[in-house]
Amino acid sequence: MRHLMSPLDFSVEELDNLMDLAADIEANREKYAHACAGKTLATLFYEPSTRTRLSHEAAMLNLGGNIMGFSSADSSSSKKGESVSDTIRTVSCYADICAMRHPKEGAPMVACQHSTIPVINAGDGGHQHPTQTLTDLLTIRSLKGRLNNLKIGLCGDLKFGRTVHSLINALVRYENIEFVLISPEELRLPDYVRVDVLDKSGVSYKEVVRLEEALPELDVLYMTRVQKERFFNEDDYIRMKDFYILDKNKMTLAKEDMIVLHPLPRVNEISVEVDDDPRAAYFKQVQYGVYARMALILTLLDIHVD
Fold first, then answer.
1. How many CB atoms lie within 10 A of CB 133?
2. Beta carbons of 148 and 176 less than 8 angstroms apart
3. CA-CA distances (angstroms) from residue 248 to 72, 184, 218, 227, 271?
4. Amino acid 270: pLDDT
């Protein structure tokens, strides 16, 4: 039995195999329509989510399986004080696989230590978001044709952005990757990611404040929102939330084949006028998220379709 807590839980070869499977699912949806018949996915979401929860559920339904779960801590027994370990022991009696999102870092790790079914970390605090990373890798590979020889700009909330932390961890294992870290001083990438991941791997990176300075050289721009729920001070959030806004004028600075990604939801960091630009790939990214999670469910349940 395997769990997914971090993108590093899969080797590069295993990631490539998973993305090959996702690509085959995209091309042959009917072939996989009953692959998980009789199987049930439990979605245990202790904090709000739209795409992550629904894409896991859509993935399981597309595979012919069943779904169950809760969409907030208030609708679960955690409101009565039940521990994560007791919840997962209970859910293991009902379901075959589980996806958990929790505001506390490490909660899904606690769950997998007490679970008798595979557990997927669907986001834990500001720590990791590995299924979003699988989505991001699949989107980049599908649209750019490769996961090496890329210059990737990460823009916005790099301090609390778990999607950014997970993506960096995954991409440093590919050849000739360069990062441009675009953020205000207050939202810089944490030292534990900069030192323990970037410096340790020897990957080339630079830190800048101005988005306009970075845009002309990028192959991929990964925008993030400033997350109100991660701030303890309302004034700090208000001061930071409009620091970066990608609009049509800024897009004129970018390469013709650059792609813009965003884990969503967006607030106002990408103007809606950018949506019609062929380089805007964030809604395609949502669709790739379903294929990535279908492939992950099949992999963790060890289900093979001829």
1. 28
2. yes
3. 37, 22, 16, 24, 8
4. 96
Q: Which of 80, 210, 252, 304 is catalytic?
A: 80
Marked catalytic residue, from 51, 114, 144, 188: 51
- Among residues 39, 56, 129, 241, the one annotated as catalytic is 129
Report d(CA 52, CA 56) in Å as an integer: 6
pLDDT score for 43: 96
User: Does residue 52 have an active-site annotation?
Assistant: yes
User: pTM (2 decimals)?
Assistant: 0.90
Backbone torsions φ then ψ of 223, nearest 5 degrees: -85, 150
Residue 156: C-alpha distances to residues 134, 180, 212, 273 (Å): 20, 11, 13, 19
Catalytic residue among 40, 43, 52, 135: 52
Give 10-residue mean pLDDT values along the chain (306 residues).
92 96 97 98 90 95 96 61 89 97 90 96 82 96 97 93 90 96 90 94 95 96 76 59 86 98 91 97 97 98 94
Buried b (16+ CB within 10 A) or exposed e, 100-115: bbbeeeebbbbbbeeb
Instruction: State yes or no: is 51 an active-site residue.
Output: yes
In this structure, what token pair is assigned to residue 89? 């022991």
> Which residue of the set 101, 151, 165, 262 is catalytic?
101
Write the CB contacts of 86 (distance below 8 Å, at least 6 apart in sequence). none
What's the rounded Cα separation, in Å, for the pair 144 and 162? 23
- Retrieve residue 282's tokens: 């964030």
Asked if 3 is an active-site residue, the reply is: no
Single-letter amino acid code for the residue at 131: T
User: What CA–CA distance (Å, rounded) separates 292 from 136?
Assistant: 9
Q: How many CB atoms lie within 10 A of CB 82?
A: 12
